[in-house]
Batch of 2 targets.
Target 1
Amino acid sequence: VICRFEVQYGIHAGYDDVNYEIRKKNVPLSQIDFLRDKISGWLLKIIQEKIAKKETACIPWEDFDHQFSVVFDRVRQRELVDFTLESPPKLEDIHSQVKIRPCYLRQLDLIGCTDSEIVEAVSDYLRADVNRHRWIENEFIDVETATDFMNKLKRFWSTQKKIIKITEKQLGEEEKGQLLLEKCKSRQETIRGISPPEPTVVGTYHALAEEPVLGWHPSWEKLLSDQEGV
């Protein structure tokens, strides 16, 4: 029987005090929520595991301090966090894109991509889109940085397109497009000197193909125009 207890009511689930303590560590305001949520999620996971094992639900300070330091270093270095690891694209969203066939997928159809390649492209496109918006929202990057990244990718695409046209004359049109796509997918490009999550480069290429400011088939502009005229 519990004889004595005290209940306190507050707002914001007590996060104000937590946020205040994190802010004292010189963490940017825009990144406090990320750090707090990362630590909270880790704490919940460890506590639940201990309870399931019938262990004392306590966490040594050394363990907490180590985990906090790891996340804090990521924030301090403004690491480009992959927000989609915890919330990957939903299957219904992927299937919806496959069904409506937006421009970037029709560009892949022009070069004979398989169904599995189409699904992979949708996943990369959606993940890159989510991360790009979350990075800007959380001030990891700004619009100017995102634009510069896209411009670098476009320049690489343009260079590779010219090289393939000169050196791969024996290939068919679809094969040239497939080769160009693979070269761009394997491009290692950084953002502010930091390597972004894996889907970023190819997903951004699909976003550029969606605009469309680039394409894979040598005659992509004419073929897309013909489709729209049908």
Target 2
Amino acid sequence: MSRARDIGLVAVPFAVASTAYLITAIRLYDRLPDRVATHFDGSGTADGFVSRDLAVIGGLATLVLTGLVMVLSVRLGRFAPPRPLVAVGAAVATVTGVLLTRTLIVNADLTDPAAAETPLWWLPLIFGLAALVGWGAWLLAGRGGASNEGAPWADAAETPVPAMPLRDGENAVWSRSVGSRALVAGAVLAALAGVVPLAMGDWGPGFVVSMVAVLVIAVLVGACAAARVTVSERGVLVDLPLLPRPRVSVPMERVVDASVRQVRPVADFGGWGYRVRAGASGLVLRSGEALSVRLADGRAFVVTVDDAETAAALLNGLAERRRGGAV
């Protein structure tokens, strides 16, 4: 119930902002010049312009896409404190909605968009309103809130795996790659969000820098969408084939035993990527089979990968031999 409430506290401000913007755009469309001022310098004078259609569609797309990102962040951030995220989301909706709507208003009935001005004294009012909306969302998110740390990590959900027998002096290495469709999709969407505006608009330097930053993020997300998992006498190593860092390593001296379990990214870890929750951490790139390693401190390290049973068997054999047990 609290999760649905938190999502609503972010979704409603964005829905209100998008609706107000759309109504304003429809009513003022015929009164807007062919080129619309969309960027203003420090004195409030227009210094950036795009076509009327791109200004209207781009503004609405900005509100909708930003709203979706914030809602998904709240929805998938299951094990992160939600109140700050809810408050920020509501405040961002207010600032974005007011600024974009006011941009259309100051362009109405102008023959030359360079004459558009937006006085700087508006900014304290806008940010003050955003602070009030964010504060209200913060207060509402704090009522009746349940713990967001999730249920304790259930060892009972894991399937024990017998140790792989290893002769004295014998060694073995297991390695397998895994990819994430969710992260690839996110990278593609981020790339489109950066490429399309750059290709369609006559943007100012600041906007170009922002879009290039979005493209860099898209490349990094895409590079993190695949990993290679290796089990050897050194322990467990998870690295990214396309990047030298980061690498996640679990030394053999920390390993107690290994098993297999089924993982649901959102339900179990609140999303995809490197995740931390109560009692467990790990790399979650997809749903399904996962290697679960019980560590000496009682926590679990989990990585979703095919053929996890073989990896667990080898890790158990190596751990037993290291402890001097019969293998």
